[in-house]
Amino acid sequence: MRMRWFAANAVLAALAVLVACNQRPAPHALAVDATGAVAADAAATVTVAEREAADAAVAVAPPRQSGQEFVEDARRLYRVVACGGEGPLPAELAGLQAVVDEHCREVLPKLAAYRARYFETARKWFEARAPAALPERAVYAFSGGDLISALVAFPRATEITTVSLELAGDPRELPALTPAEVRRELAELRREIGLLIAVGSNTSVLLQAQQQNRLPGQIASFLLGMVAGGFEPVSMRYFQLDDEGGIRYLEREALEGDTRAARSLRGDWKAPRFAEVFRNVELRYRKPGEGPEHDRVHRHIAWNLDNTQLGAHPQLLRHLEAKGKVAVLVKGASYLLWFASFSTFRRYLLEHLAWMVSDSTGIAPNHARGVVQVPYGAFLGPVVANAAGMPEDRAAQALWKTAREKMPFRFGYLDRENNAHVMLTRPR
Question: How far apart are CA 222 and CA 147, in angstroms?
């Protein structure tokens, strides 16, 4: 009974595609019995050519994307804030041309220097050491606004998920700002993203400040990463995770009707200035000139990763676990994974990493069960005071004493003596 029901619906679906595409329908209606099954001779009314046409239509038709689309806002921010693209601004932003030119004269040389140092040099270093069968899904925990580092470490990734305390932000305010206001906002943004476009890092203080801007600092940072990597945005939507960890895109009614102020995910941080619904964002992007079949996906999820919050809000873990084995990036993470209060997420990483790139803030060697860790560079102790002297600190220093190669570039924290260091972790 179940197989016959599926067969009936498959044929009906094929006919629906034919009608939608103005193809010739079957010569006469299908005979369906009381159970919903197609009568034995009915399938013969759909010719081989018609079935092939239906299959082709299904293959080329893109899946329907739900949720309110913000791609035009993304493109404005890409051009104005991230200095992506060339030529004059669109008509509605023409009054900002001088302001944007001034901003981009400062930003573009820094992006070019980052590109030469990381996309052209550091990327080769990672590619030479990555496993051949590395998954195309990547998870970057404690990321802040740093998509750019994931694009360096995982150039083949088609899906990147970043997770941090910072909320994505509301992208709609730019057209309402005066040139003077935009100039002030861009100057503040340049101050906040200085480290990001220099070495792919940031500080908690600056990340918190971005949550107060009228231009969304997180989205701006993601778009700067795309410009550095040679990508452009083709879609931007907001979403929530359902109880099973599935993605539910937000429609216009939810985004405009829910004006609850966003709350900070860390108790001593100021609350963001935008609404809670602008918490999680999905950006789809591709190289200029490529077709939709080359789309890549970046999702940023604002979540607190400590044990208490993951226990109270398990949707994130369910979402990540459903991805199976993933490439993992952790750096600049304040050594939180060294502490018992983050053991739940540490266990997730150990069980799901296919290959992990980290600085010393990754999984400490005394917790690294079932994996192999290879250190590079030098580590003589953490720069974060409350991590110094822990058993994890002693274990990390012992591991780095076995390092056989220097690090040719900075990727994450330096140690207390300003040494660059990286650790590569893989399953045993």
Answer: 5
Single out the residue of 194, 6, 233, 207 nearest to residue 107, CA to CA. Answer: 194
Asked whether 427 and 356 are in contact (CB, 8 A), the reply is no
Residues 41 and 134 in one domain: no
CA distance 426 to 343: 19
Q: Clarify whether residues 47 and 90 are in a common domain.
A: no
- Specify burial of residue 141 (Cβ count, 10 A radius: 0-12, 13-18, 19+): buried
Running DSSP on this structure, what letter comes out for residue 384?
Answer: S
Do 148 and 190 fall into the same domain?
Answer: yes
Q: Does the reported pTM lie above 0.90?
A: no
266/165 Cα distance (integer angstroms): 7
Mean per-residue pLDDT pooled into runs of 10, the chain (428 residues)? 39 37 34 30 39 41 70 97 92 95 96 96 97 97 96 98 96 96 96 90 85 93 97 98 97 89 84 92 97 97 97 98 98 98 98 98 97 98 97 98 97 98 97
Same domain, 147 and 198: yes
Last residue of a domain, one of 60, 88, 104: 60
Q: Is residue 358 part of a domain?
A: yes
CA distance 224 to 216: 12
Q: Find all residues with CB under 8 Å of 106, minimum gap 6, and list them.
A: 190
Buried b (16+ CB within 10 A) or exposed e, 278-313: bbbbbbbbbeeeeeeeeebebbbbbbbbebebbeee
Count of domains for the chain:
3
Residue 208 sits in the same domain as residue 189 = yes
Range of the domain at 404: 331-428
